[in-house]
Specification:
This is MobA/VirD2-like nuclease domain-containing protein. It holds the Pfam family Relaxase. By secondary structure, the chain is α+β, with helices and mostly antiparallel strands. Helix content is about 60%, strand content about 15%. The strands form 3 sheets. Strands 1-3-5-4-2 form a 5-stranded antiparallel sheet, with helices on both faces. Strands 8-9-10 form a 3-stranded antiparallel sheet.
Length: about 425
Amino acid sequence: MILKGNQRAGASELAAHLLNLRDNDHVTVHELRGFVAGDLEGAFNEAYAVSRGTKCRQFLFSLSLNPPETADVPVEAFERAISRIENRLKLSGQPRAIIFHEKNGRRHAHCVWSRIDTDAMIAINLPHYKMKLRDIARALYHEHQWEMPPGLVHAKDRDPLNLARQEWQQALRVEKNPRKLKQLFLSSWETSDSRASFEAALSDQGFYLARGDRRGYIAVDRRGEVYSLSRWTGRKTNELKARLGPAAGLRSIEETKNLIAEHLSDTATEIQAAAQKRKADRRARYQAARAELVERQRLQRRQLAKRQGRRASIERKERQARMPTGLRALWSRLTGAYKALQKEIEQEAAACNQRDQLEQTELIWKQLRERRDLKERLRRQDRKPPEGLEALFAEIQTRQSQLRDAHMSETRKLSRRRRPS
């Protein structure tokens, strides 16, 4: 599992994020331990109230546990991993909450601990917690025989396509695959050795090199979206400046948008708009299918919970009826039969709980497979090139070539005029 943790505050904000059903298909509050409150926001605010008796500001430790995308991991495996982590970080016995999220056909968990030791009224220190989480993550990959990401084996091999939250949000906003977008900028940078070659590489992908208002070097796509090159290429400003020259020599954002408007003829603009509309329609159909699937899955879970509740009530009454009463109870206590029967009933109750948990797990895994199938259908549709896309690129390239030729011709004329007679 990939383990990511951080110390933080913001009790209500964290609770709202973890209970967010807009971005998650299913959210399950699996456990609230050590809190008086019976809901997640109340539990976190309770931790905040306790922290007010100390000088600690980041009174929570929030951890996410992400197994491989297609791995079906039982709840018990998550619980064992969480127990190992809290033992290693000296958080054993601290109030905690465990929440499960399901999204896009994959399941992951969050665990949040209160850092406040109420006996000593101090915050538990978490030295080197990132290194400890890394070691536990490696051990979990070995134990479950999952293929370990190269970056977890050696930090220097970390996947360069890993994205920060801002990059993910921007890619989703412009409806592009985040990793493909990152790969586009990285390959453009790695295959170039000068400003001209980098600008040409970006141009081939529909981006224009420009000067930002606040950021020195940016790229602008045909829709006018601005991308920070330092963020998307992972290069520092000094590296960008060494290859691209001073940012002052680049076009501004407004000038670049005007250039894009010149490059796109009315026909190309219409084709592009039509392609974007088809993509938006396809996405809308997918979101409708997703919403229908998620609602059906939630209904199935409610129905299962109701059936299990009725069955548990009947079984509980049957077990209670087997317990002796009156003189029979007294005699069975004297002979030791009462204790043996009590132990037998406890084992039966535990077996029933385990059976119910297994039924829930099987339903969850079945629904995760359904969600993955839906996601894969969307991927196959996205891989199909939209009609008219080739014509769009041909139109743009022709127009760009004409403008470059005109620009070069004008430059040569000006050069001849400036020569002394």
